[in-house]
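Reference record
================
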Amino acid sequence: MRKGIVALAIPLAACGVHTDDDTAHLNTKAVSSHAPNTLATQGDSTPAQTTQAPVRRQTKAVVSAGSGNHALTSYEVRRLYGPGVFRQDALANTIVGINGRREQIVSNRFRATINGHLSTARLYWQPGRGYSAGNGGNIRLRLMPDDGSGAHRPNMSATPLATAYFTPGSAAYRGNPIFNDAYFSSQQPLVAGRIYHLVLDNIHPAPHQNYISSNNTITHSGNGRPSRWVSPTDWATLLGTRNAWSGGGFSWNDMTQSPAGGNYYVPILQLTTRNGQKQGSSAMESGAVDPQRIFTATASHPVRERFRPYSTKRVSGLSFATAASVGGSLRWRIVQGNRELASGRISSGANYYGLQLKSARVGKVYWYDASFGAITLQAGQTYDVEFLPEGGSQWKFADFRNGSHHGFSSPVAFTESNAQHRVNGNWINAYHFNHYSNGGTDSNWPVVLHLD
């Protein structure tokens, strides 16, 4: 029989923000919980204190966001299970070619988590007015080593480790997103743990008349970087620029380390080796736009992330991003059918507001962390992480599309769960363009479970 205990929930403004944090005004307080021995704390500054049954090793129930500097290959990142490791506010394009008086190239920097010769790369190419011109050009993709400096730029004088080409052709004139694989001739294999750059440049003879954009996941600087855990060194978008036709060296802007135009960038990219290993991230369409897309959870309209694990998982913590538009309490719980496995509450005064992008407004969110006695999620079974507003409180949730309907696959697209919400008493899949329509299974809420 479970004992009622006390849980403390403190919202965490997403890390990496260069503006003032606005957590000081939040009204957070201890509330009761029915989870076994649960204590949620501000993990970035106060270690999580957990009383629970003995486990196999000494591990914090919740991975601390710290300063967002965990390597992709680290034990900490491997403990993160769920779609919210990277979240999204919007898309932003990076032109590959000559735009006006400036030539641009792009580096997608990554720390390899896989080994082997690179076979394909799948990106999100965006044609159309403001994004492309002519036939899109001839895009060369080169796998380059890191220069070893503290800035971690590509070593442009090195011999490419692998090379591929992408020619949009007639597809560039139709204006629809392009999700094609580029196929590599590989000279040297990827080695897990090393930093590499996938450099995109345009070798068309008229790159000022024929160019295209690669699309990126972005977050407003007020929401911090897309990942509050992963180091900006390990998954990043860099833009190289120089005067058009100059032939000089490129000046690099790391748009993941520091915001560009008020936004943090990360690549939308899937890398696949010859032996089928995959690495990447593919959050590609945001439901954060306020008020048109963002969801408002109420007592009669709760939300949940429905998990179907591919393998058995032992879980001891939960993180999720939300904000209260009307203050009060939000109950969370993990259930299998009618069986409750863990639960708790957070409480806050109204802390939601909009953040202005160039052409839209997106919702401000805060991260909340909770720890609990370890529970087991069995492979192939269905589990729900529910978020249930209490009383008249209202909470904002922003979904994002994971790319699984556009050729991005697990583990790049997190396909072991999907976002749902309750409408007129029925649970339906989230679809941010029409909240009353049943969507697909390719949308997620920003939710992360922490493996024990």
In short: The radius of gyration is 22 Å. Residues 225 and 319 are 16 Å apart (CA to CA). The chain is about 0% helix and 45% strand. The mean pLDDT is 89.
